[in-house]
Each structure stands twice: as structure tokens, then as C-alpha cells.
Amino acid sequence: MKVNINEDYIRSAFFGLQDALVSTTGVVVGISAGVNDKAIVILASLVAVSVEASSMAAGQYSSEKAVHQMDKTGRHKDSLLLGALIMFFSYLGAGLIPVLPVIIIGPPKSSFFSVAFALTGLFVVGLIRGKLTGIRPLRDAIELLIIGGAATAIGLIVGYFLKV
Ligand SMILES: [Zn+2]
After folding, report:
1. What is the pLDDT of residues 94-118, one digit of tens each?
2. Ligand 1 centroid distance, CA of 140 (Å)
């Protein structure tokens, strides 16, 4: 499948999706381990996702701007603002996935589902990315599952020992 979307937008979207699934899960499960109040966990998670989505969008804008300024080939025709918006909504959308079980079930039982949802999300993101690039989708999906899963595990271990 040949896709005619600017590669910078694709990178922005996948970076946002992957990062949101990994870091939000750490935050959600970490907070759930220390706080048993469902409303507080939901509030804190939503604040974290929103702040992080904005920060990632700002980071996307400024880092891409530097790339554009250094680019002498004129290959970068993408819009910095659109790239930032894609990052924001990718992050926000994917970041809500591990928060959903907290809203539906509530902590601490929801933590298992937050992790399961996030890992499933990573697998699906890997599959879609593999389909877009056309190179071994399943291998891509498993790779993302392992990398993302390892990052999530580190977040959970740190959260557990610090009792965030
Ligand atoms: Zn660009």
C-alpha cells in the first residue's frame, strides 16, 4: 500500500500514539497504586495526559522547526502547525486508552486492564505502522509491543517502589 502522506506527519502521529500509551499507563497505574479515590485518579490522569499532549505538541513544533531551518534540500514541505496538532491529538487519543478502565472499573482493579489495553494498543499501532510501510506488519507489531512493554514495565516498577 502506497501512502502519499508527508512522512513527518506519520512520524508525529506514531510518536504521539506510542509515547502516550507507554507513559500514560505508567502514570495511571502509578497513581492508582497510591491513591484509591477513583475521582482523584481520573482527574490526575486526565491532567497528566493533557499536559503531556501539549508539551509533546510544543516539542514537535520546535524540534521540527529546527529540522526545517537546517534542511537545505527543500524536502520539508510539511506544516509545523499541522504536525504539532497531529502530535497533540494522537497523544490525547491514545493517552485516554489506559484511563478508560479507571473510569469504568475504578482503581486498583483497573490497573490490570490499563496495562492490557495499552499493550493491545501498542500492538495495534505496530500493525498499522507495518501495514503503512508494507514491511512485515506482524514483526513491527511485536517489536513495538516489546519496546513499549519494556518501557511501560520500567515505569510501573519505578512507580511501585516510589509509591507515587
Ligand atoms: Zn518537516
Report:
1. 999 999 999 999 988 998 999 999 9
2. 24
